[in-house]
Amino acid sequence: MSWGDDQWIRARPSVALVVPDSALDLEAVAEALRRLRIHPVVLPRTENLADWLVRWRPPVAVVGGGAPELDVLLSGLERHGVAVVLIGDPGQLREVAFLSSIEAGLPTPANSEEIGQAVAIATGLLDPEGRASSAEVGPLSLNLIQRTATIDGCPVQLPPREFSLLAELALHPNEPIPTLDLARRAWPEQPSASQEDVRQCVYRLRRFIGDDVREPALIQNRRGFGYFFRSMERKCNAESI
Q1: Among 8-12, 51-55, 180-184, which is the least confidently predicted range?
Q2: Which of 119, 92, 122, 159 lies closest to 35 in space, CA to CA?
Q3: Are 114 and 49 found together in one domain?
Q4: What is the mean pLDDT of residues 142-146?
Q5: Residue among 78, 36, 48 nearest 61 (CA)
Q6: Domain that residue 200 falls in
Q7: Which of 56, 51, 232, 204 is nearest to 138 (CA)?
């Protein structure tokens, strides 16, 4: 399937090259990657590897152990510094364990969620414990480990409560979150936080990130329901699942 002009992906996604074989459910893997904001690009033929790497510059590749010319393929990915999530039988995984490019080896059958998480860890979107390490939505960039934020490339100093609330919204762009759910998810250590606490925090947060003078605002209110972070989107033409 190809992405056309009428199809969209969120701004600044990661890209994962997918090398199919019979052990991979391509549609399920693609869906798992998209849920993590990773754009899947399928390698149609292994002889096109060099061109595809130059075109897409993927930081990671998902490779099925039954892919044709597997040794040549893995060597090519290693030369280009592409991390590999390999799905194969235990014997295959042992044989290639010496390659520095092997980021993760998953024995068959591996489910799509495991593959997606391994790719997200390889790209740095998740830490080794499976927790998100960063979020990038439109002009906003968050480092969730160092708890730093930038808007349009400019650093923004945020107090802890405001940062936690912004992070929760940014990790689920365009997804309205009920006000009390947002309080519990952003501040789990404060079970008594109220809707008014959230409203006041959003008011302060909008001023910190310049949302009070931005049109349209990044943080949107669904009246009577809750809040969401408006995702900036751009078109992408890509060979994709």
Answers
A1: 8-12
A2: 119
A3: yes
A4: 84
A5: 78
A6: 134-233
A7: 232
Of 115, 117, 75, nearest in space to 99 by CA: 75
pTM value?
A: 0.56
Does residue 186 sit within a domain?
Answer: yes
CA 43/CA 21 separation, integer angstroms? 11
Owner of token pair 């390889």: 122
**142 and 187 assigned to the same domain:** yes
- Contact present, 165 and 201 (Cβ < 8 Å): yes
| Cα 222 to Cα 122: distance, rounded to the nearest angstrom | 35
Q: What gap in Å lies between CA 40 and CA 121, rounded to an integer?
A: 15
Q: How far is CA 140 from the centre of its chain?
A: 14
Query: Domain boundary residue among 123, 145, 175?
Result: 123
pLDDT at 23 over 60: yes
Q: What are the pLDDT digits (tens) for 155-166?
A: 999 999 999 999
CA pair distance 164, 86, nearest whole angstrom: 35
Give residue 120's identity as a one-letter amino acid code: A
In this prediction, residue 66 carries a pLDDT of 86
Q: Token pair 């992405």 is at which residue?
A: 3
Which pLDDT score, from 0 to 100, does residue 202 have? 96
Cβ atoms of 39 and 57 closer than 8 Å: no
CATH assignment of the domain containing 222: 1.10.10.10
Distance CA 16, CA 29 (A): 11
